[in-house]
Every structure is written in C-alpha cells, then in structure tokens.
C-alpha cells in the first residue's frame, strides 16, 4: 500500500509539472498584458510599456522560450512565481488567499459531505417511507437553488437576526473584523464571519452527495452478499453498516476528493457576495487583468489540490476496500 501511494505521489508530481508548464504557454498565448496599458489616459509611451513588461518578464516582444526559461528558473531557484502586469507579487497574493479559501471552503466541504452521506444512508434504509420521500423532496429543492440566491437569502436572514437581537451576531461581509486581537476574540470573530458562507455552500451542495449515496447504497442493499448476511441472522441496520455501506461509500469518497479543487476555485460567486478574497476571486482577477503569472499560479494550485484529493482518495479506498491493500 505504501509503495502504491508513493508511486501515485510521484506520478501526480510529474503531472503537476507538465500541467503548470503547459498552462504557462497557453496563458502566454491567450492573455495580453500589453492591453492593460492601452486604455490609460494619458497614453503610456510604448518604450515605457516595454520597460514595465520586460521588468516583470511579460514582454511579448521577447521570445516565449526566453520568458519561460526565466520564469521557471526563478521558481526552481527562488520559489518566485513572478509578478502581475502592475507589479504585484504572485507569491504574496497566493500565500494570503490560500488560507482565506481554506477557511472558506474546507469546513463547508466537510459538513456538506457528512450531511449528504448521512441523509443518503438514512433515506436508503427507509426507502419509499414518508421520511425518505420528504427528505428527497427537500434535497430536490435545495439542489435547484442557485448559489447567488441562497447567498442573498443568507445575508437577508443574517441582517434580520442582527436587527432582532439588537447587535451584530452574524457578519455578512469579509473574513474578519479590523482591530480584533487575541486568540479567543479572533476565533469568535472568525466563526461569526464564517457561519453564513458555510450555510450557503452546505445548503446548495449536500444534495448531490445525498442522492449519490442513496442510489449506491440501494444497489448494494439488494446485492446477494447483503441478503446472505441478513439470512444468517443480521438485522437490516447491521447488514447495511457492516457490508453494504463500506462498498457503497467508496465512489462517494472518490467524488468528494476530486471535488475539492473545483470548490476552491469555483466558489467565486459566494466569495464575491460575502466579500472574501480567496482563490476563486483571484482566478477571475488574473484573467480579467491579463495576469499570466497569476493565472499559472492558480492553475498550479488547482493541480496540487487535485493531486492531494486523488492521493487522499486512494488512501480512503485502500482503507475501505481490502482488495486494494492486497493488490
């Protein structure tokens, strides 16, 4: 199992290197940092534009291979991912926004998965009963709520609650209050800012795992090995817990692991509404401002998170499925 995981890590490391370098060439082909200077008034002289772009290794008048070599050398030797056309350090941007996104996304992802799997198991074990039908209808409704609508509803509800209580309990914008000092005050302030975004992501995201887990578990409940277990005297709940659930949860675990990178960079709408400066908003900013180095850094970050999710998925599958450990 250890050798298998190490081989997978090595393979993903090579994939990250290839994907990152390929993204550099694609970004250089489709993004134009020079366009950032065309709309400025008064107009910027061409020699000044060239000087700025050359300073940040973004001058399209230089050969692409020459720019790529300088870029990759700076990363390998100094871990310097370059600068935006305005001179902002990509390292500084990513270092700050990663933790904002992690705070924004990870808790919501864990809650989404736990609630979805729990509801899937609960409704599958009570197929066609009233609780199954009601929870399925609720999930159908939440599945069709667009994220902006849910986020705005959460904001309105938070403001109404604050007005009702006469003080600010739930913050509707930003990731923290200015001037908050100390561990416990900082922790409480962070939780107050995090509740509404987390509720938004959980409500709009859990139903997918609910339906997936329910469908997979129902398939396995009707399998021969589960019916054999029940024929030997196990109760339905015990047969599901010992035999059907470990098998049916493997595809769900794999789905969760591979969904993490998409959630990181795809939470653009929620980050925008709640005013969180995470990786999702940074991705949009890099594209709109022709920031080649920033766009490549976001792609590299997505590749790393995908690799982490894939390795975690392999570990989880290995734990749940003895055949993987044996092979």
UniProtKB/TrEMBL annotation:
It comes from the Bacteria. Gene3D superfamilies: MetI-like. Keywords: Cell membrane, Membrane, Transmembrane, Transmembrane helix, Transport. It holds the Pfam family BPD_transp_1. Residues 98-317 form the ABC transmembrane type-1 domain. The chain crosses the membrane at residues 12-31, 98-122, 134-161, 194-212, 249-276, 296-320. It is a multi-pass membrane protein. InterPro entries: MetI-like, MetI-like_sf. It is found in: Cell membrane. Belongs to the binding-protein-dependent transport system permease family. This is Peptide/nickel transport system permease protein. The lineage of its organism: Bacteria, Bacillati, Actinomycetota, Actinomycetes, Propionibacteriales.
């Amino acid at each position: 199992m250890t050798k298998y995981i190490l081989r997978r890590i090595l393979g993903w490391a090579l994939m990250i290197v290839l994907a990152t370098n390929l993204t550099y060439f694609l970004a250089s082909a489709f993004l134009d940092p020079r366009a950032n200077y065309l709309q400025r008034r008064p107009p910027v002289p061409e020699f000044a534009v060239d000087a700025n772009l050359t300073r940040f290794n973004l001058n399209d008048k230089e050969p692409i291979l020459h720019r790529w070599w300088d870029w990759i050398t700076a990363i390998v030797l100094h871990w310097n991912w370059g600068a935006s056309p305005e001179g902002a350090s990509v390292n500084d941007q990513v270092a700050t926004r990663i933790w904002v996104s992690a705070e924004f996304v990870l808790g919501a992802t864990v809650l989404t998965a736990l609630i979805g799997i729990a509801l899937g198991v609960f409704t599958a074990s009570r197929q066609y009963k009233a609780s199954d039908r009601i929870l399925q209808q609720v999930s159908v409704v939440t599945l069709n709520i667009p994220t902006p609508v849910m986020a705005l509803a959460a904001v309105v509800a938070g403001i109404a609650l604050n007005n009702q209580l006469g003080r600010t309990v739930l913050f509707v914008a930003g990731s923290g209050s200015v001037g908050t000092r100390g561990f416990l005050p900082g922790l409480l302030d962070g939780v107050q800012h995090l509740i509404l975004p987390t509720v938004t992501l959980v409500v709009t995201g859990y139903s997918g795992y609910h339906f997936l887990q329910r469908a997979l578990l129902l398939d396995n409940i009707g399998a021969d090995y589960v019916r054999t277990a029940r024929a030997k005297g196990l109760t339905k709940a015990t047969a599901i817990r010992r035999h059907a659930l470990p098998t049916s949860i493997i595809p769900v675990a794999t789905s969760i692991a591979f969904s993490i990178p998409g959630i990181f960079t795809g939470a653009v709408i929620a980050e925008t509404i709640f005013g969180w400066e995470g990786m999702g908003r940074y991705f949009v900013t890099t594209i709109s401002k022709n920031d080649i180095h920033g766009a490549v850094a976001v792609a590299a970050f997505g590749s790393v998170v995908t690799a982490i999710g894939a390795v975690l998925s392999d570990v989880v599958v290995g734990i749940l499925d003895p055949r993987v450990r044996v092979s």
